C-alpha cells in the first residue's frame, strides 16, 4: 500500500505561512486572537505529528511497538485538542463583546479539553492494541 503525504506537506506550508504572519502582527491581544494563534500552533504540531505518524505506520515493521504506540498516543492527544480550541475560538468570536461569556468558556475549557483528550487517548490506545494483536502493526 502506498501513502500520499503531499497533502500534509502542503498543509504544513500553508499553516507555516499563516503562523509567521500572525506572529508578526500582535496588535490586539484579545482572547479571540490569542486562541487563533494557539490554533495555528497546535495545527502545526498536529500536522507534524501526522506526518511522523504516517511514516511510523509505513515503517512499522522496522520499529518497536513502543515507538508506534507512543506516536499514535501523541497523535490522538493533539487531534482532539485542536478541535477543542476551534470550538472555543468560535465561542470567543460569537461572544467577543460579552465579558460574561468569555469568563464562562475560560472556566469550562480545562475540563472539556481534558475529557476530549482522555476520550481520544483511550480510543487511540485501544486501536493501537487491536492493530497489534491482529498483526497489522508488528
Structure description:
It is a single chain. Helix 1 (6-24) packs antiparallel against helix 2 (31-58), helix 2 runs antiparallel to helix 3 and helix 3 runs antiparallel to helix 4 (99-134). It is built from four helices and no strands. The chain is flat. It has 138 residues and is mostly helical. The mean pLDDT is 75. It has helices at residues 6-24, 31-58, 65-94, 99-134.
Q: What is the overall shape?
A: flat
Q: How many strands in all?
A: 0
The first-to-last residue Cα distance is 16 Å
Percent of residues in β-strands: under 5%
Work out the radius of gyration. Answer: 18 Å
The SSE order reads HHHH
Helix content: over 70%
Oligomerization state: single chain
Structural class: mainly alpha
Instruction: Enumerate how many helices there are, as a single number.
Output: 4
Largest sheet: none
* Mean pLDDT figure: 75
Low-confidence stretches: none
Give a quick rundown of the structure.
This protein is mainly alpha-helical and 138 residues long.
